[in-house]
Amino acid sequence: MLELLKKLTNLHGPCGYEQPVSKWIKEMMIPLVDEVNVDSLGNVVAKKKGLKLGKTTIITAHMDEIGFIVKKIEKNGLIRFEKLGGHDDRILLAQKVQIRTKGGLITGVIGTISAHYAKFDDPKKVRNHRQLYIDIGVNNEEDALRLGIRVGDPITWYPTIDVLGNETTGRIVGKGFDDRAGCAVLIRTLQELQNYSISGEVIAMFTVQEEVGLRGAEVSARQVEADVAIAIDTTAVSDTPEETMDQSLALGAGAGIKIMDFSLIAHPAVKDSLVELAESKNIPFQLEVFPGIGTDGGAVSLANKGIPTGVISIPSRYAHSPVEVIDLKDLEASKDLLVTFLTSDQYTVFPFVE
Known about the structure:
Helix content: 10-25%
Largest sheet: 8 strands, mixed
Structural class: alpha+beta
Distance between the termini: 39 Å
Radius of gyration: 21 Å
Order of helices and strands: HHEEEEEEEEHEEEHEHEEHEHEEH
């Protein structure tokens, strides 16, 4: 799982510019499924048919990561940028980034004043991202153009992934876990399904533009008829000591089973099924009520005539930053719960009223 996640997070794919991720995942899907297509937006839709009749299940994770886009090249070669997805301006300063040009990847850094100038500045001031700039090591606009930089080029955090502490912690830090970690869970799930005789059909959707309004999932889910859907995404834990944290979700406490967020009230029967299966298989889990987040599950649930939808959440610290932290045990628990759900014949219908 760790090696798979390394490959996924090294891919450059912010919102609307997921092409490298779509291409890579499509190639991964070919030996695992019966049919795989990439639609006009870039969503990868992979279908695996079972040997017996049964329900059609959507499993989905989004490929895009938050990022930026080149807005302007200043005369002195510094680059102004706009956001792709949700960022906290307080953490932008002095971060390494990677710009994707037609000629390749260019490393830059979001500039900040030297500590020696801090005494002349307002220490409480948080500069808006539009006041900031990216330094790519050139002296003028012409040099930036010679490097291949153009207005509209996509930008991500510089890719890194490391073990926190040492190997015994099981915790890793890097960029793009939201939601390349979910993509890793879907890929590993489809790999493990090769060992099972499943019923019905599993439709894996790797979607685009989730971070800017669940756009890819809205388009992708309309293309298929399904009986039930499970979205896989990260969720922000609340186990650190800031005064806003309520200690309701914790890193290392197992897969999150969503009850509600701002985009979705999980279908009660799907949520209950996930809880019962986790309990029966001793898969660690925690229940999630968190209105501060949304997932592709919200868009999928509204598709066609409505699809009963649940969400398995991967707990994460420091979301939407270059140093997101997840616990590999939570990642494995999320995968185990999804595999268990897909291979169980116990739940064939999902009534709202019994």
